[in-house]
Design goal:
The protein has a domain at 14-70. It has helices at 14-25, 32-65, 75-90. It contains 3 helices and no strands. 65% of the residues lie in helices and 0% in strands. By secondary structure, it is mainly alpha-helical. It starts with 13 loop residues before the first helix and ends in a 6-residue tail after the last helix. InterPro entries: ParD (IPR022789), ParD_sf (IPR038296). This is Putative addiction module CopG family antidote. It comes from Stella humosa. Pfam families: ParD_antitoxin.
């Protein structure tokens, strides 16, 4: 698959420059382009997750407006519920 290449020029901080050099020296990346590509992939993934979170919040707000919300007697009940619904997501892909 041919990928169009666009050349851009930008300035980075000394700290980021050192980080790029360290990542290449450690053998984790072949060159600065690969480091930047990995960083942009993470940003793209973060943006997708952020959009999904906002969509879920919108759904939740609409459910509450329709009277479909869940009531909790105290903060401990709320915390237990949040742990119950988030643990499977946070632990997805982790061994055992």
């Amino acid at each position: 698959m041919d990928v169009a290449t666009i050349t851009r020029s930008f300035t980075i901080s000394d700290e980021h420059d050192r980080l790029i050099d360290e990542l290449i020296a450690d053998g984790r990346y072949k060159n600065p382009r690969d480091v930047i590509a990995a960083a942009l992939n993470l940003i793209e993934e973060q943006e997708i997750r952020r959009a999904a979170l906002h969509a879920a919040i919108d759904v939740g707000v609409k459910e509450i407006e329709r009277g479909e919300g869940i009531s909790f007697d105290d903060i401990k009940d709320l915390e237990a519920y949040l742990i119950q619904i988030t643990d499977p997501i946070l632990n997805r892909g982790k061994p055992g």
